[in-house]
Amino acid sequence: MATTAEYGLGPFTYPRGWFMVAEASEVEDGKVLPLRFFGTELALYRGQSGNLVLLDAICPHMGTNIARNTTSYVVLDGQVEGDSVRCPYHGWRFGADGRCDDIPYHDGPIPPKARLTKWQVEERYGCVWAWHDPEGGAPEYDLPAVPEWDDSAWVHWTIDHLGELDCHPQEVLDNMADAPHLGPIHGSTLAYFENELRDHVIIQRQGGGHRTLAADNTLLETDTFYTGPGILLSRLTGFYEALMLITHTPVDDGRIKAWHALLVKSENAVATEEDVATARGFQESSRLAFLQDFEVWSAKAPVFQILQIKSDGPFHKVREWYKQFYNPREEAAGRQEKMNGKYFTPWLEPAPDAVVAKGRY
Ligand code: FES
Ligand SMILES: [Fe+2]
């Protein structure tokens, strides 16, 4: 696996930001979902208050993974108590704040080191998001707003689990600047293409024909943006108005897990069952279009230095922008200020003003 160090991104192995860690429906009441992200074993569960709790999974007592057990009587009898969770091995119990709050066979004081790291989580749009910060700070930006989610004309997405991939997330981010792949991979003809860097957001505005997502001679316009290093949303017009989610989270250094989903607008004030069926079909076309990129990533060699020609997109700018998440937070504002602005691909038109004005990031 190609590592963050080999890409020379910065001192942190994993980037700072909001990341998807699970689909909300994967968390079953009373059960602990085992996860692995950022090279760390994690435990996700819903406390009896209804709140989700995400903790490091390795018990500080003797190293048991509290989320990967199916046979202990602690697990069989119900591991979740209130918003706390018990370790399968000796039954130590940890609260939603990660502190051990009960050792069943011990009356004395509980050692302060008996605690699990607690992660900040948000449940939104059918997904569970976690804030990762190598420096342990609070979120410095919000999850992206998706007003379409609360509009009954829009059909909610189902989440496509794309699985894990031995590919450093840098290679996925490169795609934001990559106009010349749109023809060969997606069958697009390009009318316009531009990038903009705006603090923790990177934008790609693109319009053109598309073989799979738009009818002959109609324009597929996509207004695509990452909020931080891991969450891509794309507002698109093709056969339907839609909002695509592509999100990826580091599992280990050089390995990611990815998901895809699509919200689709129906022509009715309240989407009908027929609209839902249509939306599912369009989501499937969208998933297949994304898998065209995925296939390349799953087999390509890592590229630490792109053999970049003048007519390529501004890969080097994207890579420079991306570094902010691998470096101390106190440097982020300075890095953003240096990089903010629009970047163009020489042989392509910039986006029309009307398209730029519509953007919601
Ligand atoms: S290893 Fe977890 S309670 Fe002993
Ligand atoms: Fe692509």
How far the N terminus sits from the C terminus, by CA atoms, comes to: 33 Å
Characterize the largest beta sheet: strand count, sense, and whether it forms a barrel. 9 strands, antiparallel
Bound molecules: FE2/S2 (inorganic) cluster, fe (ii) ion
CATH superfamily of the largest domain: Naphthalene 1,2-dioxygenase Alpha Subunit, Chain A, domain 1
Query: What is the CATH topology assignment of the largest domain?
Result: Naphthalene 1,2-dioxygenase Alpha Subunit, Chain A, domain 1
DSSP summary, beta strand count: 20
Text of the CATH class of the largest domain: Alpha Beta
Q: Structural class, from helix and strand content?
A: alpha+beta
What series of H and E elements makes up the topology? HEEEEHEEEEEEEEEHHEEEEEEHHHEH
What is the number of helices?
A: 8
CATH-scheme architecture of the largest domain: Alpha-Beta Complex
Q: How many domain units?
A: 2
- Arithmetic mean of pLDDT: 96
Helix % is: 10-25%
Strand content: 25-35%
Radius of gyration: 22 Å
Would you kindly provide a brief summary of this structure?
With 361 residues, this protein is an alpha+beta fold. It has helices spanning 4-7, 73-76, 169-174, 182-186, 273-299, 315-322, 332-339, 353-358; strands at residues 17-23, 33-37, 40-46, 52-56, 80-81, 84-86, 93-94, 100-102, 118-119, 121-124, 127-132, 154-155, 160-165, 189-198, 201-209, 220-227, 231-237, 241-252, 255-265, 341-344. The chain has 8 helices and 20 strands.
